[in-house]
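User: Here's a structure from my thesis project, written as structure tokens. My advisor, Dr. K., wants to see whether a designed sequence matches the one we expressed. Can you design one independently, without my sequence as a hint?
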């Protein structure tokens, strides 16, 4: 075999290897495209489902609207969900302000509050009878008993007593934290 033939054979082998690599890449691309299409289809289905649920929720809200007077042409502010992981007293104060801005009755406040409860806060509703679920005072009492700051007084006193300014904490932040602890304790 001459040197030229060897080079031709080497080039031919290299081209064959390249063709195999290209074929493997094209196969991989095809698989990735198929998987991508499956993911797109799943996302589309999830969006359709969310839209169906949202549409059903809007229909139920629209159906419930006539039970309340027509003075609610536009909601001024909407409360955010409560999951029991933040201060109930602060959430309650904000909820009351929003209810006042929207001019909600106690029955409306009960409906909105129960719809805003999540996780462990929503679990409180299981302990209330169906008539109590429309009683704003009973709902808030149950939530205050479980999530209110009143039972934390001793713990807060201890935190206040032990609170020191951290190395990189500015004086304003430290003062605010101490004041907040003192107010809650």
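Assistant: Designed independently from the structure alone:
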């Amino acid at each position: 075999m001459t040197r030229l033939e060897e080079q031709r054979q080497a080039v031919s082998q290299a081209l064959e290897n390249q063709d195999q690599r290209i074929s493997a890449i094209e196969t991989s691309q095809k698989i990735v495209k198929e998987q991508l299409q499956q993911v797109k289809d799943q996302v589309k289905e999830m969006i359709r489902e969310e839209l169906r649920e949202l549409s059903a929720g809007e229909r139920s809200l629209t159906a419930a609207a006539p039970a309340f007077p027509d003075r609610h042409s536009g909601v001024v502010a909407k409360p955010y969900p409560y999951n029991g992981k933040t201060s109930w007293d602060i959430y309650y104060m904000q909820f009351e302000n929003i209810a006042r801005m929207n001019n909600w009755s106690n029955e409306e406040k009960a409906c909105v509050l129960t719809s805003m409860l999540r996780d462990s806060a929503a679990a409180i509703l299981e302990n209330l009878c169906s008539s109590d679920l429309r009683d704003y005072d009973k709902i808030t009492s149950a939530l205050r008993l479980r999530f209110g700051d009143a039972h934390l007084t001793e713990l807060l006193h201890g935190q206040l007593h032990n609170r020191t300014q951290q190395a990189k904490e500015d004086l304003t932040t430290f003062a605010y934290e101490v004041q907040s602890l003192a107010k809650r304790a």
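When you compare it with your expressed construct, this may help: The chain has seven helices and no strands.
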